[in-house]
Each structure stands twice: as C-alpha cells, then as structure tokens.
Automatic annotation (TrEMBL):
One matching Pfam family: AAA
ATPase AAA-type core domain span: 336-469
Protein name: AAA-type ATPase-domain-containing protein
InterPro entries found in the cross-reference section: ATPase_AAA_core, P-loop_NTPase
Molecular-function GO terms, alphabetical: ATP binding; ATP hydrolysis activity
Length: 660
C-alpha cells in the first residue's frame, strides 16, 4: 500500500499552567516600530564586515577592503565605518535582481518573508517589554530618561540592558525560524557565523541583526527558495549565538523561568529553547501490513508493540506512561543479512504509527538519517545529525527516526577508514541516545539497522536498548508464505496442502521464539552458560544470575554495566508483554484521549510479573547478539590480515624471482 499523508496536528497540545499568554494587542502595538525597521533605518556596523560580493582587485597589491583603521594614538578604537542604509523591504522585493521578482510585483514568497520578519520583530519587542516589567528595567529606563538614575543603579541598569538585548535577539530568531519553517524547501544555505551581535540595548540589537540579515540576503538569496533558506539559516545561527552569549550573562533568570504562548501562531517561547512547528512531514512511503512481513517474529512483534506504546504519549504531561513504568524502547538495533526484511520492517512500523496518528489526530514525523547527511564541510555532518535528532524528539509530535545502514553512516572510532564526517555523526548519536542530557519522554523511538553491525562502534551499538534479529523466513511454512505473497494474484497455481499465513500467527510464533532463547545460540556464550550452570546449578536466583553475567563479562570485556541496563530494560518490556487492544487504537476516546493518570492506571492493570525465565531469555538474546558481533568483527579482521600476509609473501616471491 502506498500512502501520502500529512497531518497538520497541533503545535502545542495544551498550555501548561506556568505559561502566560502573550496577548495579540501587546504584539500588534509594536507593529509600527517593526514596520519601520523592515522598511529602512541607518546602521553603522561595529563588528561585522559588509558581505557584498567580492570585487576584483584593480591591480596587484591593491586590496578591496572598505574600512580604514587609524593608527593615530587615541583614535585606534574609533570605527571609521560609515553608516549604511538598511532597507529589508527593498532587498527582499529584489530591486534590480531578476531572480527575486523583476516583474515589479511582490511575489507570495517575498510577502510571506516580509510579514514573517515584521511579526517576529513585534513578538521580540513584546517579550522584551514583558521582561522589562518583570525585572524593573522599565522603571530604570524612565529614571534614566529623566536624568534621575541613581549612581548605584547604573551597573544593574547596564546588566539588564544587556540581558534585554539577548532576549530580544533570541526571541526574534526563534519566532522567525518558527514562522518560516513551513515554507522551507530543499535548498540550503551556508551563511557562516553571525557577527553583528550587539548588546547595548534591544533596539540596537535588532538593528544589528537586521543589518546582517540584509547583507546575507543580498549575498545568498538569488532565488526565492534560497530567500527562505537564507532567512532560516540566519535565524538558526543567531539563536545559537545568542544562547551561547547568554551562558555568561546575568539577570536572565526571569526570562528563562517563564514561558509565553502566542495563540494565533501556536508559538510557545520557553527561555533559550527553540520552538518547533509541530507539523507532520509529508510522508511518501510504501507501507506494509504485519501479515506481509514473513518470519522475523520477535522483531515484528516488538515493532507492533512499540508502535502502540508510543501512542500512549500524553501531550499535556509530555510523558509516556510506558517511559515512567520502565517498558519503553527508546533505541533499538535491527541486524541481519541482506534481503532478510529490514526495510520491510521499517515500512510496517512507520505505516502502523502513521495510521494510529491519523485516527488520534496527532502530528507524526518520520525521518531517516542517510549517507546524504555526511558532508565534507567541517562540523556540518554533526549539525545534520543533531537536526535529525531534534526533529524526531520534538515533544509536540509523535516521532520515528531510522538510521539505515548505520555501519556506513557512523564511523568506528580508531578505524582509519572512518571519515571526519562519520565520526561527527557517531559522537552526536552517542550523546543523544544515552548522554548526560538525554531525556526519554516516550513520544518517539529510533531504529538503527545494519547488515554488518560488527562494523558499528561498540559504544554506539551498546546504546541500542533492544535488539531485533532480522533473520527473515526460516521454516518451510515461511518460504511458502513469502512465495505466495510475492507471486501476487495474476496466476492460477494452486496453493496445495498449506494454510496461508497460519505460521505467521504472531503470538504462537513469538512464544516459540522466546523459548528458543532459554539456552544460548552462539558457541562462545554456550560455553559460558554450560560452565556456570555446571558449577552453581540452575540459574534461579539473582545471585546465580549475577554470577552468569560475570562469567559473560570475563569472556567478553565489552559486556559492561550498560549491557546490564539494556537487559533489565528489555525485561521490563517483557513485563509489558501484552497487546494494547486494537480498539484502543481505533477509537481515541477509549485510551489515547484520556488523561495521563487514567492511561497510567490502565497500563498498570495489564502489566505482568517478571519471571526468572524472562530474565534468562533476555540475557541470552542480548549476549548472543554481542558474541555474534564480536565473532564476526574478529573474523573480518583476521581475514584482512591473512590477505595482507599472503600479498606480502607473493610480492616477496616475485621480487626474488626477478633478482635471480
């Protein structure tokens, strides 16, 4: 089934109790000032240099710099840059630039950008005004105008002005990025670092950033798609710069601790946290139904469970009951030989979540991190990976992120074949999946897939909380079912003595698959299991199971505390080994639309007790995968060395023959 779906969803599902409304009249009263800034003002740049297209030198040795820096003592710090007229309106309308509307009329895209910038400036001024009232800056400004500002208040006044400038710049950039995000296309622009960041006061700060934005539009926006891309790139860069400067500035607590909701735009301003427009991506993907996935019983079963689990997310509490109870899979690794069905599994899971979201009216965002995100520009690969993570973990959407062929995408540390871009992606994924700042809300999940997981960095691979062995069809019934499925309907060949898809009955197949892990599969782990069992007997207590874990660690030093955490998380998932009723996904009022506490109670009622068998099976499942990866990795390395020695020996033989 091929499906193209787009849900507008909600930018914020509800307004939290500590969020204040930024009233529309408080914003619109700044429209005149915002319009004047967009139409034109004079600004003398202090830090940034003009970014006009470079002019060829007139003769050798004569540069094209536009500034002169005096060497006269006492005047060395005086800027001799001339005041420049900034006319964003004219710049955006493309005066003299055919590509940006040389027909004399403002295009819809240009008008959208102009209105968006004016709106963002007005919102920034409104928030700055709120900040001034909350901190007493407004009173200090009046006293300063009247000439009655006390000497003891001057330091406080200066610090508050600096804070107000940072607030204004950040809110302007945040609002601009939010308002323009839905108009972004495929074009991207590299604008470099933002320079003209002035913190004297809010008005001068806005003049500085609008002057630099005007420069960037003139340099990069030679087409309408690039106009939007340039504005977005500048807004993102300005947010990063202002947030970085804010880490060393004082008196920002009143802004950081508060939040404002702009109801008309669906924008919520929460300190120095970027707002994201909670809209679904337009998803074009060939979805698969669960019965079209042959074999892969455990992987299919857990994918189906996870698709329902993520739908328990509560947008008001911004938390999933499964995440609180300890049964939510935030990251998982799917590995198997080529052609065993990893892509089909992705299509099935994305299709299920998409359908559930359509029923509930939730925004769904699917994104895949691919080799296209590896960039030769230093730092860009890491930025691409971070943008991928941020888009999926956005707490105002249901997210599903996949990293297909992760062994090609993320570099293995210490491997000379790994590029700088691949290592950047590895660092971002490791920090995002289990870093100090990682917060698992339960609104999204990430799947890493690979044909060669032994080539994935050990530390990154161990950040996969669950392992899905994608081994494809295994039994005679599986092969009959997949042949029947792929043959289609355009034939008259009888099925024969076989009940189609009966072997794919999920509960029966999964029960058999889990029981199969009561004993290890990999030879190395089987030796450990047999040795420990022969010494201490049946593994039926925590102490005996812990002894087994220590035995595994002695056989493979990479089996660390993180592995134990992944195993216990998997055991908790098994305790949640129940099927959320299909009708809960079909009728939102039965489950998805209920409040958080009710959903939590409903899930707790279904939870099963943890058994020794569950623990042993999950230890063997996880350890089998690690031993399998390690054995493959070692064999690949040994084969490579053997080939090198054989080549060296053959080269030596030929050399001696040529001499003799």
């Amino acid at each position: 089934m091929s499906c193209i779906c787009q849900d507008e969803g909600r930018s914020e599902m509800s307004q939290t109790s500590d969020t204040m409304e930024l009233r529309e009249e408080d914003i619109r009263k700044h429209y005149d000032a915002a319009t004047a800034m967009v139409q034109g003002f004079d600004h003398t740049p202090r830090i940034g240099a003009a970014k006009d297209a470079p002019v060829a030198e007139k003769s050798s040795g004569i540069g094209t710099r536009r500034r002169f820096r005096t060497t006269t003592p006492g005047l060395v710090t005086w800027s001799t840059a001339r005041s420049e007229g900034v006319q964003l309106l004219a710049r955006i309308e493309g005066a003299g630039t055919d590509n940006l509307g040389g027909d004399g009329l403002t295009s819809p895209t240009q008008a959208t950008v102009l209105h968006g910038l004016r709106r963002a400036v007005a919102i920034a001024l409104a928030v700055a005004e709120q900040y001034g009232m909350r901190t007493g800056l407004a009173d200090l400004k009046r006293a300063n105008l009247e000439g009655s500002l006390a000497a003891g208040k001057r330091t406080e006044f200066s610090e508050l002005l600096t804070a107000e400038a940072l607030v204004t710049m950040y809110v302007f950039a945040n609002a601009t990025a939010f308002l323009m995000s839905s108009h972004a296309g495929e074009d991207t622009v590299e604008i470099g670092e933002v320079e003209e960041v002035l913190t004297d006061n809010a008005t001068l700060a806005l003049h500085g950033v609008l002057w630099e934005l005007d420069q960037d539009i003139g340099l990069f926006a030679d087409t309408e798609p690039k106009l939007v891309a340039t504005v977005l790139a500048y807004a993102e860069a300005l947010m990063a710069k202002a947030a970085a400067r804010a880490t060393t500035a004082g008196r920002l607590e009143p802004f950081v601790a508060a939040s404002w909701k702009v109801e008309e735009d669906g924008l919520t301003i929460r300190g120095f946290t970027p707002a994201r427009a909670a809209k679904s991506t337009t998803l074009t993907i060939s979805f698969k139904k669960p019965n079209e996935v042959v074999g892969n019983h455990i992987a299919k079963y857990q994918s189906m469970k996870l698709a329902k689990m993520v739908m328990a997310y509560d947008f008001e509490r911004k938390l999933n009951p499964f995440a609180e109870l300890g049964g939510f899979i935030f990251t998982f690794m799917g590995d198997g030989a080529p052609g065993t069905g990893k892509t089909t599994l992705i299509q099935m899971m994305a299709g299920l979540i998409s359908e559930y979201c359509q029923v509930a009216g939730y925004p769904f965002r699917y994104q895949n991190l691919s080799t296209d995100n590896i960039d030769s520009y230093q730092g860009k690969s890491g930025q691409n990976a971070k943008a991928f993570i941020n888009n999926v973990i956005d707490p105002s959407v249901i997210g599903f992120g996949t990293i297909d062929d992760i062994d090609q995408l993320a570099g293995k540390r210490g491997d000379r074949q790994s590029s700088a871009g691949q290592l950047e992606i590895t660092a971002v994924l490791m920090e995002s999946f289990a870093g100090a700042n990682t917060v698992v809300r339960g609104n999204c999940t990430f799947g890493m897939f690979s044909n060669y997981p032994e080539n994935v960095d050990d530390a990154l691979r161990q950040r996969a909380g669950a392992r899905f062995l994608v081994d494809g069809p295994q039994t005679r019934d599986d092969y009959i079912d997949i042949l029947y499925l792929l043959m289609g309907k355009n034939h008259d060949i009888p099925v024969g003595d076989h009940e189609v898809f009966s072997a794919q009955e999920i509960k029966k197949a999964v029960a058999a698959s889990f029981e199969g892990h009561s004993k290890p599969h990999e030879p190395g782990l089987m030796n450990v299991f047999d040795r420990v069992s022969a010494t201490i007997g049946e593994l039926d207590t925590i102490a005996k199971i812990g002894t087994y874990l220590k035995g595994i660690q002695e056989a493979d030093p990479r089996f660390t505390g993180r592995a134990i955490k992944n195993i216990t998380d998997a055991v908790k998932v098994r305790a949640m080994d129940f099927e959320l009723p299909d009708e809960w996904m079909e009728r939102p009022d039965l489950f998805m639309a209920k409040d958080y506490d009710t959903k939590l109670a409903m899930i707790e009622d279904l939870r099963k007790p943890i058994t020794v068998e569950m623990v042993i099976q999950e230890i063997n499942r996880f350890a089998d995968s690690e031993f399998r990866y390690a054995d493959k990795s070692d064999e690949v390395a040994i084969d490579g060395l053997v080939r090198d020695f054989e080549r060296s020996e053959e080269a030596n033989r030929r050399y001696l023959e040529s001499k003799g």
